[in-house]
Specification:
153 residues, alpha/beta, CBS-domain, three-stranded mixed β-sheet, 17% strand, globular
């Protein structure tokens, strides 16, 4: 099974120079908690979560409309390609301890997003998908959280 078979194709995103208030509005309207951050060419440069927004606004004495996305986003992005095997994408999620991966096209542009929910609902137990025991093993690692504490600046 390939990532493109189960991913969300029309992923919402924001740009690095957007403000956190605008990004939060996109998340609220789209009912998502994570946005890939793209540059002007559509290449993924980071990921922004609702938690990133909360921490950035809580730790700064500035309004969310005055904080740029690039100040709060995670710049270390792990992504996969649309034609990667779902099993390889799950291993990448496990290694990075993340629940979502941006999916890139052949030109490195955002093609969609793959979530742990997509894998659970569409790939676990399927003939060419993920064995339930493999999914559970990966989830144990992912649920344990990051292996390195985040930096506070």
């Amino acid at each position: 099974m390939k990532v493109h078979d189960i991913m969300t194709g029309d992923a919402l995103s924001c740009q690095t120079d957007s403000d956190l208030s605008s990004a939060a509005r996109i998340m609220l309207n789209g009912r998502v908690g994570t946005l890939p951050v793209v540059d002007a060419r559509g290449h993924v440069t980071g990921m922004l979560t609702d938690r990133d927004i909360a921490m950035a606004t809580g730790l700064r004495v500035r309004h969310a409309a005055d904080i740029a996305v690039h100040e709060a986003m995670s710049g270390r992005v792990r992504g996969c390609l649309a034609y990667d095997d779902v099993a390889a994408a799950l291993r990448l999620m496990q290694d990075a301890r993340v629940r979502r991966l941006p999916v890139l096209d052949a030109n490195g542009r955002l093609a969609g997003i793959l979530s742990i929910d997509d894998i659970l609902l569409r790939a676990v137990g399927e003939e060419d998908g993920i064995a339930p025991a493999d999914f559970l093993s990966a989830m144990r690692v992912i649920a344990a959280g990051p292996s390195v504490e985040p930096e506070v600046s």
